[in-house]
Amino acid sequence: MRWRCTLKARRQLEHARNTHPELWDTCFDDRLLAVPLLRLAPQDAPPEGVRLVPKDDARPEGDPYTADLLAGYPHVIAAATCGGIYRLIKARWDNRHLFGHDFCDLLLLDEASQLSLPEAMMAALPLRPDGQLLVVGDPRQMPPIVQHDWKREARRTFRQYRAYDSLFDALAPLRPPRVGFARSFRLHSVLAELLRQEVYQHDGIAYHSQQTEQMPPQEHGDPFVAAVLAAHYPLIVLVHDEAASQHVNAFETGLIGPVLQALTCPDGHALDAEKGFGVVVPHRAQRVSLRRAYPQLTVTDPATGQEIRSAVDTVERYQGDERDVILVSATESDPDYLLASAGFLLEPRRLTVALSRAKRKLILVASRSIFEFFTTDEELFLCSQLWKNLLRRACTDLLWEGDRDGVRVRIYGCPTNGKEMP
Prior knowledge:
single chain; alpha/beta; Rossmann fold; seven-stranded mixed sheet; three-stranded parallel sheet; 18 helices; 21% strand; globular
C-alpha cells in the first residue's frame, strides 16, 4: 500500500514538472524522479517500479551484499523491516561488527507505535551519527506485543530502561519536535468525528476526514441484515444479551453469518476477503472459530490449498491494515471475566485500532454487558467510557430489534446527517 502511494507521488511530481516547469525548476530537483525504489526481501511481490532485493543468503553468486548495494547508490529509497535491516548488517559484517557502518542519511520508522526501542535500534544500525530520524505512528494505537508480566518484573535494568515500551514512550522524555496529522484519508467522516471527540481531542488534534463514500444500497430479504447493511449508516453497533463467553463466542460467530453472506454474495456487494471486508477479533480462539465456520474468509493457493491470507485476524495484527467494511466481534461477554481480565478488551487503544480500519462501514458486534460494565477501579472504569459512548453519543438510532437464536439483539446506527454528535 505504501509503495503504491510512493509511486503515485512520483507520478504527481512528473505531472507537476510537465504542467508547471517554472515552478518545478524553482522548488524541485530533477533527481527526485530518478531515485531508485528498493524493497528488501518482501513477502509479496512489490509493484512495478519497485526493485525486489532478495535476502543475502539467497542472492545470486557474485552479486554484492545488500549493504554494499545500498551504500553504492548516491541516492536510494529502500524499505525493509527492522529485523531485515539487522540481518543485512549481520550478513555483511557478522555479529561482532554490527556498529560503525553508516551509509543511511534518513531513517523513517513507520507504524512506530508497535515498535519497541530495541527494534528501533536494529533499524538504526546504518544511520549516520548526523542523520535524521523520523518516527511516524499513532501512540493512541496498540503498543508492542511483548509477552511478559512487566508489572511484576523485579530486574532493575528492565524497570529503568523499559525496553518493552513503545518507541513513542521511550522518546517522549526527550521532547522531540512533534507534528500532529489531523486528516484521515481512510475513514468515513462519521468514524473520524467519533475518534476526534473520544480520542484525539485529548492530544489537541482536530482529527477529521473528508471521505463520505458509502456502501451501495442493496435489497435484503432479512430485516436484520437490511438494518446492519443500511447504506446511510457508516457506523453500526449490534448489541446482544448473550453474557457467558470469554475467549470464544459461538453466538457472535453465528450472528454475523448472514451479514458475511450478504457482503460476499456475487449478486450483492461481492466484497472479497483480501481488500473488501475484514473481521477483527480480540482473541485467537475466536479467530479460529470464525475461520472454521466461514471458509470464504480465507484466501488459499489454488495449487496447494495453503492459506495465503485471511480476512479475520486479531486487533494487533490488523493494525496498519484497512478494508472497505470492517466487522468487529468483541467476543467477551461474561461480566466476571471482563473484570478479571484487567481490562484487556476495554483497553482504549485496542478499540481505537478496531474503529479506524474501515473505509466505508464499521459493524461492531458486542454484548450488552460490555456497555453496562461497572467497576470501582477508576482506571478500568475510565477505559470503558469509549465503549459506553458508542451508544450514548454516537449510535443513537435504533434500527432493528428482535430475537436471533433465542437471544435479544438490537441494532443501533450513527447516521450521516451532518450534525455533530452531542
